[in-house]
Design a protein that fits this description.
InterPro entries: ADH-like_C, ADH-like_N, ADH_Zn_CS, GroES-like_sf, NAD(P)-bd_dom_sf. It catalyses: a primary alcohol + NAD(+) = an aldehyde + NADH + H(+); a secondary alcohol + NAD(+) = a ketone + NADH + H(+). One of its GO terms (biological process) is formaldehyde catabolic process. GO terms for molecular function: alcohol dehydrogenase (NAD+) activity; S-(hydroxymethyl)glutathione dehydrogenase [NAD(P)+] activity; zinc ion binding. This is alcohol dehydrogenase. The protein has eleven helices and 17 strands. The chain has 376 residues and is α/β, with parallel strands linked by helices. Helix 11 links the parallel strand 16 and strand 17. The protein folds into two domains: 197 residues, Quinone Oxidoreductase, Chain A, domain 1 (Alpha-Beta Complex); 140 residues, Rossmann fold (3-Layer(aba) Sandwich), CATH 3.40.50.720. Strands 3, 4, 5, 8, 9, 16 and 17 form a seven-stranded mixed β-sheet that branches. Helix 4 packs across helix 5. The protein is globular, with a radius of gyration of 21 Å. 24% of the residues lie in helices and 23% in strands.
Length: 376
């Protein structure tokens, strides 16, 4: 009989987080067969995202396998799965698309009611884990857990992609780069000739810059406290760089002055709710729009004076750039194959799986954009 119909438990290596901020430990884990409407994936490449760091540093559920920005090959499929078959190349996604719920069918949202952001460390279908060590459950992260040689995801949280696309590059499209491009194109819908200001020049912020450049923005101002990012940012479309630490005035006043009243669009890509107000204040009256993409580490509540909105400004949130993952991600992969968008430029380090803690160190030091972790 086919292994697709009767998959078995796989024992493989996984980087397990046993406690908040503790180094990941390479362990032998058991990975259960995929249940109905699930697939098991052999992970080829995964990259480290800032939200992995944020969750790892928090008092979240442990033990846990982090990682959500990944590419791989389908190893087996569960009952009822007809979209995938063994050998398909896929991207994982942390927020799925069931294509049946009100949100998915609306054409207005990518917030799937059935496969939205999973925070409890278990599978969507039965609220159990597919990982264990000596029978002890190991919890999932964002319904993906790609810091493992094999993982199990709901079929709605994976996207089939062209086998022509290099898996060690397109893994970036399963979160960070896609999130930034979508914020610029889908959420803000940046217009040609506009002025854009971006707070935070990590992968997401630079992806916003890339998207703004491709939309024909005339000025793209990058704001970051790391001066090393200023020069690199030019390759992604940043036309001016501002370091708030080198200004005698609040940065929003500087931006309003140099733009003659404020930017048309501002993007908060840091994960600091206080910066949302700063971003709003950096926009112009009448039509200024602020989009927030960052995941805050602390103080999740924000405050803003009502007059900022009374004078016409708009604040929008953005999850995964508004992309419907299964419907939209294949087109982004095609754009990369045609060299219409940049990916390689975000990859500052390639690291073997055994050295995964080095990736955490580099991101913690602010020394990288994306570390791509190669499983073999």
């Amino acid at each position: 009989m086919s292994s697709i119909k009767h998959p078995h438990v796989i024992t493989c290596k996984a980087a397990v987080a046993w406690g908040a901020g503790e180094p990941l430990m390479m362990e032998q884990v058991d990975v259960s067969p995929p249940q109905p409407m699930e697939i098991r994936i052999k992970v080829v490449c995964t990259s480290l995202c800032r939200s992995d760091i944020t969750a790892w540093q928090s008092h979240a559920i442990f033990p846990r396998i982090f990682g959500h920005e990944a590419s791989g090959v389908v190893e087996s499929v569960g009952e009822g799965v007809i979209e995938f078959q063994e050998g398909d190349h896929v991207l994982t996604v942390f927020t799925g698309e069931c294509m049946k719920c009100r949100q998915c069918k609306s054409g207005k949202s990518n917030i799937c009611e059935a496969l939205g952001l999973e925070r409890r460390g278990v599978m969507h279908s039965d609220h159990k884990t597919r990982f264990s060590i000596n029978g002890k459950p190991i919890f999932h992260y964002c319904a993906v857990s790609s810091f493992s040689e094999y993982t199990v995801v709901h079929s709605g949280c994976a996207v089939k992609v062209s086998p022509l696309a290099p898996l060690d590059k397109i893994c970036l499209l399963s979160c960070g780069v896609a999130a930034g491009l979508g914020a610029a194109w889908n959420v803000a819908n940046i217009s040609k000739g506009s002025t854009v200001v971006i707070f935070g020049l990590g992968t997401v912020g630079l992806s916003v810059a890339q998207g703004a450049k491709l939309r024909g923005a005339s000025r793209i101002i990058g704001v970051d406290t790391n001066p090393k990012k200023g020069e690199k940012a030019k390759a992604f479309g940043i036309t001016e760089f501002l370091d708030p630490n080198h200004s005698d005035q609040p940065i929003q006043q500087v931006i309003k002055h140099i733009t003659g009243g404020g930017a048309d669009y501002s993007f908060e890509c840091i994960g600091d709710t206080g910066m949302i107000t700063t971003a709003l204040q950096s926009c112009c009256d009448g039509w200024g729009m602020t989009v927030t993409l960052g995941v805050p580490k602390v103080n999740p509540e924000m405050k803003a004076h009502y007059s900022l909105f009374l004078t016409g400004r708009t604040l929008k949130g953005s999850l995964f750039g508004g992309w419907k993952p299964k419907s939209d991600l294949p087109s982004l992969v095609d754009m990369y194959i045609k060299k219409e968008i940049q990916l390689e430029e975000f990859i500052t380090h390639n690291i073997p799986f055994a050295d995964i803690n080095k990736a955490f160190d580099l991101m913690g030091e602010g020394s990288c954009l994306r570390c791509v972790i190669h499983m073999k």
